Amino acid sequence: MSTSPRAWGALLVLCGAIFLETIDITMLNVALPAIRADLGLSTGMLSGMVSAYVLGYGGLMLLGGRVADLFGRRRVFLVSLGVFGVFSALGGFAGEGSALLVARFVKGVAAAFMTPAGLSIITTSLPEGPRRDRAVLVYAGVGAGGYALGLVIGGLLAAVDWRWVFLAPALLAAVIQAAALPLLDDGGRGADAAGRTSDVAGAVTITSAMMLLVYGVVRLEHAASADAAGWALTAGVFAAGLALLAVFVAIERRSAAPLVRLGILRSGPLVRANAGALLFVGSFFGFFFLVTLYLQELRGWTAPQTAFALLAAGIDAILAPTLTPRLVRRFGNVRVIFGGMLLGALGYALFLPVGLDWTYPAMFPTMLLLGLAFSLIYGPLTIAATDGVPDAEQGLASGLVNTSFQFGTALGLSIATTVSVAALGDGRTPDDALAALRTALLVPLAGALLALTVTAPGLRRRHAALGRGPWRQAPGRRPGL
User: Fold this and answer.
1) In 27-112, beta strands by DSSP E
2) N or C: which end of the chain has fewer CB within 10 A?
3) Which H or E run includes 447?
4) 226: Cβ–Cβ under 8 A, 6 or more apart, which residues?
5) Is the alpha carbon torsion for 13, 383, 113, 220 positive or negative?
6) How far apart are CA 114 and CA 83, in angstroms?
7) What gap in Å lies between CA 275 and CA 269, rounded to an integer?
């Protein structure tokens, strides 16, 4: 990807795809009450629509990234984008909950292949350095903006007709597909074709393991109200997922052409970047889930009112592609990430004393701080998770970090929900609900503090490296997390 007009057009196409994927996640959350009212769905069915997407996305993301490496990034991107658009349209015409469940699951599977393929096209088209960083930060900034803007767009579309929450992404996918055909190339050669079909056992075990682990995380949402049998089932799902993960590791160690080269996990910066991604995104989405419940159920705000209340967090759509690249060039990835996590922790702490009579100006500082935090963290974490990785494994690295983002989302929502339900107990009054909310708000704060702890070692590492001279490391490597 050079600096030619065609290259910028290709980047615009990839940014459009990540924007499509991120707004699709958050738009549905705002539209769920309207879907329930129209189709008469149960709470379990509504929860299932969210969980189905997470199951497909988180369960196959790692495989999706590796498939892009092996079979061609452009091909995988175009096919998965087409599937995403088709099933989004089918969801818009669905007349019952089961059809929506299928549509959401297949869209999650399609996103699991589309997202790492798109990111790896960027990272393999440009050499490590300022140009790649700028492209990744613009790409990640657009994606980050989609998370916040999706709340607003979803609220507006749901006010017209909830079906547009499915039909609008289908139309956008068609436009992106038409633009991608002449603009995208493969972003560099993939892995040797000899490894394409030789690790079927690895592909089956890792996909099964990831789907079981994601399902276990999703089940945690109901853990607080589950009986002994429910807890046993959840524990069994986790045990089976971990057992399959151990089998996968054993297979990869013996495979002549492994699906995942386990040595990639020996990179401390890569592991810290993925751990930081999981913790921060989990905190972010857990917090906004709790705030949405607070505004709509405790305060009685409408979906559009809630969406606009959260709009301040969408400042990341402006700052991530403009301010963040300058800060990264000036201070480096790690310091920018650490500063963003500090802002996030401060924002969560400021919201802890929330009351039933809080005005919006009292909430605004937290919304603004979290928008700033997201703009400083999302893109630099993506860079840190792909720096120093060979081109042949960029899809795998992209799949890893996006898996961390998705697992973080599911884990943050599940733990926040579990703590909130457990803290509420048999309480039924607004004061009881407020007390439970304040307890649950400790979850995102704890996650942000853990993310700070994970990131901190990278500050010392970067300082030591810079003390030996600017970027004096192995060729092609820079100080990371």
Assistant:
1) none
2) N
3) helix 442-467
4) 234
5) negative
6) 10
7) 10
Strand ranges inside 128-225, DSSP E: none
Contacts of 433 (CB under 8 A, 6+ apart): 297, 298, 424, 427
Q: How far apart are CA 114 and CA 14, in angstroms?
A: 10
Look up residue 32 and give its two tokens.
Answer: 């769920």
Identity (one letter) of the amino acid at 70?
A: L
> How far, in Å, CA of 399 to CA of 62, rounded?
5
DSSP-based three-state secondary structure for 389 = coil
Going 230 to 231 to 235 to 238, the CA torsion angle's sign is positive
Note the pLDDT tens digit of each residue in 84-119: 999 999 999 998 888 999 999 999 999 999 999 999
Q: Phi and psi of 3, rounded to 5°?
A: -100, 20
- Residue type, position 106, single letter: V
The C-alpha angle 372, 376, 380, rounded to 5 degrees, equals 165
Residue 185: closest CA among 3, 395, 11, 396:
11
| Angle in degrees, 0-180, between the axes of helices 43-71 and 5-39, rounded to the nearest 10 | 160
What are the CA-CA distances from residue 149 to residues 22, 59, 67, 153 (Å)? 9, 26, 30, 6
- 189, 391 contact by CB (below 8 A): yes
Q: What is the pLDDT of residues 1-55, one digit of tens each?
A: 556 778 889 999 999 999 999 898 888 877 877 888 888 887 667 767 877 887 7
Burial (CB count <10 Å: 0-12, 13-18, 19+), residue 82: middle
What are the tokens at 395? 């899809």
Considering the entire predicted model, what is its pTM?
0.80
Task: Please classify residue 106 by burial: count the beta carbons closer than 10 Å to its beta carbon, then call 0-12 exposed, 13-18 middle and 19+ buried.
Answer: buried
Give 478's DSSP letter: -
Give the separation between CA 475 and CA 471, rounded to whole angstroms: 9
- Report the C-alpha gap between 307 and 34 in whole angstroms: 14
Angle ∠(341,318,147) on CA atoms, nearest 5? 65
Question: Any long-range contacts for 45-48 (C-beta under 8 Å, 24+ apart)?
Answer: 45/97, 45/101, 47/221, 48/97, 48/101
How far apart (Å, rounded) are the C-alpha atoms in residues 243 and 104? 28
Q: Which of 50, 327, 30 is nearest to 160 (CA)?
A: 30
The answer for residues whose C-beta is within 8 angstroms of residue 469's C-beta and 6 or more apart is none
- Find all residues with CB under 8 Å of 85, minimum gap 6, and list them: 169, 170, 173, 174, 177
DSSP H helix total and E strand total for the chain: 17, 0
Look up tokens 């803007």; give the residue.
149
Both tokens assigned to 294 = 């607070």
> Contact at 8 Å (CB) between 396 and 336?
no
